[in-house]
Amino acid sequence: MIPDDVVLLQDGRYEQKIQVDRRRLEAMITGVPATETGFIFINAEDFFNKVKQHSGAEVCWPSQLKIGAKTKKDPFVKVIGTVEEIELAKKYISATLQVKKERVTLKMEIHHSIHSHIIGKAGRGIQQVMRSTGCHIHFPDSNKYTDSANKSDQVSISGPPLNIENARKHLRAISPLVLTFDLPWIFPKEPEVSRFPSEVVLTLRAVTPTLYSCVLRANAGDDLMILQAINVIMAQFHVP
Hints:
Ribosomal Protein S8, Chain: A, domain 1, 4-stranded antiparallel sheet, alpha+beta, 240 residues, 3 domains
């Protein structure tokens, strides 16, 4: 079966374009070791001549490739011949110059109501996360134009696998956490809470003269501070 990206030429031969790793091809052309491995590859012209010799296919490679260009786009090598010759040439080329698909995308659920908190003013919060993790993080644009019932909770993280895991943990750590609970109060004066962690925001509201509603707000990553805050409140309210 002939692959979809193989084109039949007028002379009866076939043609296929094979994408190759730019950094490795540059290393072949310049003779400078590839930075990710330090391995010195065979000269590019010698390499493609050997591919032609062993496969029988004609190989057209970008000999005038601009070295050190700003673009990170991987170039293509054109292979012409029979289907069998192309497959053999592709095998040789891919073994040395195959593009590494290092970027993956993770989709995670974060409630849409806290997206703006994570993004931060003028996007500064999420930009800091992207800089520190080397990942691209995308929040659904449609949330700006839809009602709350139809908003999406899905957030996309793109980048190398290890970086993505760091970004996921970072997003979870800076996601706001809200705890609400009621505590009894039997004293005539209003409760005063002192020595409270600055990382946690406390709101006290009297439901009745003998019952107070407590609301704690903090980032999920400040779990130790949250536990400390709960202990302080329990002590102030004389909860055993």
